[in-house]
Write a structure and sequence with these properties.
The complex is a heterodimer of chains A (146) and B (136). Chain A has one domain. In chain A, 70% of the residues lie in helices and 0% in strands. The termini of chain A are close together. In chain A, 54% of the residues are buried. With 136 residues, chain B is mainly alpha-helical. Chain B has one domain. In chain B, 69% of the residues lie in helices and 0% in strands. Chain B has six helices and no strands. The N and C termini of chain B lie far apart (37 Å). The chains are: A mainly alpha (146), B mainly alpha (136). Chains A and B meet through helix 1, helix 2, helix 3, helix 4 and helix 5 of A and helix 1, helix 2, helix 3, helix 4 and helix 5 of B.
């Protein structure tokens, strides 16, 4: 399935993400890494003192979809390509990997690179590489092309 | 005050994910499909985010404390260990398979579509499992 090249929207959306990350550090002293924020709401990393802040951030994320839909009069474009079975497997691996590697696309890819953290640069190069390989294998080697 | 401001920061982050196209797994997987229907848009997401956050963080670093909190919680770990590399490698595999990373997954969760509910529940299970393993 082809998707349209959207450099302006993507750059603008990315800038909003970057702005949110800077505001979270400037105002609250915290890294806007989503897997980290979520893990502080779950055992065993559950931190009572961090619950209100982490929950508020997650509720904000959850509110974006209905707000955008209300303003635009239609839901954002989002097409799930994978089957439900693959999504469950993908969910487990995504969550497990992000928590084990202490970060995901936001924590390492945006915040970490912007801090020029060697750890985050290495992590981002690693997950980009395995993500490219995974799509190459599933789309071109297993499925015989898309 | 802290909670309201954090809510709006999360909202801004979520709107950024929506506008950028990160919430569309088809687009994410096309970005990752160099050999097929490649859509380079998502490189612009990272570019736009870093273009703001890199100078923004540099400016924040010059300050003594956050505006609404008592101290900065900059990450301090510097070790390039097996947990970091192995975790990142697995994360990339999951991201490639599903086309969803944690932020977009939570944002799309509000659509209420069944497959995304399954993904988020599985992701939460994965986060808990990794936490248990790391603590042992």
């Amino acid at each position: 399935m082809e998707t349209a090249f959207t450099p302006v929207h993507s750059l603008l959306g990315g800038a909003l993400i970057g702005l949110a990350a800077v505001l979270f550090m400037w105002l609250h002293g915290r890294i806007a890494g989503i897997s980290g924020i979520v893990s502080r709401l779950l055992p065993p990393g559950l931190s009572r003192a961090e619950i209100p802040m982490s929950a508020a951030f997650v509720v904000g994320l959850l509110a974006a979809w209905p707000l955008y839909s209300a303003i635009r009069g239609e839901a954002p474009e989002s097409t799930l390509v994978a089957s439900s079975g693959v999504l469950v497997l993908a969910g487990i691996i995504t969550g497990f990997g992000a928590a084990l590697g202490s970060g995901c696309t936001s924590g390492h890819g945006v915040c970490g690179i912007s801090r020029l953290s060697t750890r985050s640069i290495v992590a981002t190069l690693t997950f980009m590489l395995t993500a490219f390989l995974t799509v190459f294998i599933t789309r071109h080697l297993l499925a015989g092309g898309s | 005050m802290n909670i309201i401001s954090t809510f709006f920061i999360g909202l801004l982050f979520g709107l950024g994910l929506i506008i950028s196209g990160m919430v569309n797994p088809a687009k994410v997987q096309n970005f990752l499909d160099l050999a097929g229907s490649w859509d380079p848009s998502l490189a612009f997401v990272m570019g736009g985010a870093i273009a703001i956050a890199l100078p923004g963080y540099r400016w924040v670093r010059g300050r003594s404390q956050p505006l609404l909190s008592d101290k900065f919680q900059w990450p301090t770990s510097t070790s390039l260990d097996a947990k970091l590399i192995g975790g990142a490698a697995l994360f990339g595999i999951g991201w490639g398979l599903g086309g969803l990373c944690p932020g977009p997954a939570l944002t799309v969760f509000s659509s209420g579509a069944m497959p995304i509910l399954l993904f988020v529940i599985a992701m939460i299970a994965g986060i808990i499992a990794a936490g248990m393993l790391s603590r042992r």
